Amino acid sequence: MSVNHQRTIYLDNNATTQVDPTVFEAMMPWLREDYGNPSSVYSLGKRAAAALDIAREQLASLLHCAPDELIFTSCGSESINSAILSAASIDPDKTHIITSAVEHSATIKLCEHLARRGYEITWLPVDELGRLDIERLESAIRADTALVTLLWANNETGVLFPIQEIARLTSARKVALHVDAVQGIGKLPLNVGELGVQFLSVSGHKLHCPKGIGALYIHKRTRFTPWLRGSQESARRGGTQNVSSIVAMGKAAEIAAALLSANPGKTKGLRDRFEQSVLKSVAGADVNGEREHRLPNTTNIAFDGIESEGALMLLDERGICCSAGSACTSGSVHPSHVLKAMGFSTHRARSSLRFSFGRFNTEEEVDIASAVVPEVIDKLRRLAPAQGPVIMAA
Ligand code: PLP
What is the separation of C-alpha 90 from the centre of its chain, rounded to a whole number of angstroms? Predict the structure, then answer.
């Protein structure tokens, strides 16, 4: 049987990342020989416990916080759920939560659930560039506000919220702040200890680590009540720790920290090379969101007159992976709630593609993708020439 070994050009690093071979090597002994439970008292267990300590220190060093301010979870979504549920239940008189319309589904779905349970949620809007109005945030804070929970970097557009400014505001108003930093950590430097946040969520698989591992930063003076109860993680998160994946996350954090200082501009260089080329060669292509304050690896481009689903299929046939909107379990694509919240029409939201670069991409791959994307867009436009022009919603 012949197998198609067409080279894959993976430009979807905001969805997940390739596991770094060094990270893979680091985790292997903890699946093979050193399989002990870190809570066991004999040497096999103690070695696992020591490995957790090292990984916690490595992650703390990337985030610039104390190791005991970190708990390991199963993913970014669990970290987000843990932070929001804790803040929402710690004081029964505080039942108001502030978030934004462009959050990740982990935040949106949980806030919708809490709204059905009697909590009041303020959904802050964004402007056409994906930016938050800080004055609007300030005026939304009330005496009964339990938590402000906001993204640092948007997964679809890469647009950054000014979390330093937001943290100054919430500190001054004595309101707890949770930052979903899943997309930002490892791509941009951040001093979490100095930031003044109460909670911050991280996910391993965006950091060249396997899926199924995350972490939550909890400021040392923040009251926290776990929803997954048990004795592990100083009784802040039950469940025997996933030692091999935690070791992997520590190693991934160590590598990310080193690269942030040694080669901070690599993915930005690749992203800019691709973006400039595509904008030049495809008429009617336009970047969604603010271009200055955004992740260095992400570009979200609207291609006038195409359906992103068709583009994804044709690009896949040419070996290129990118994404559009948020894929649901059936694999179909919904118009992005982020682009809709920015005021774009359903048509524009449905004609947009996200390309997100990673450290394993090369200039050669970028050049191939820069040539293939215009061909695919051209083909789709010729197939559907009757499409109207891109218009902004009122
Ligand atoms: N927050 C953001 C901004 C994300 O992009 C993601 C994953 O795509 C998550 C949270 C959830 O992380 P995980 O997949 O580890 O649950």
Answer: 26
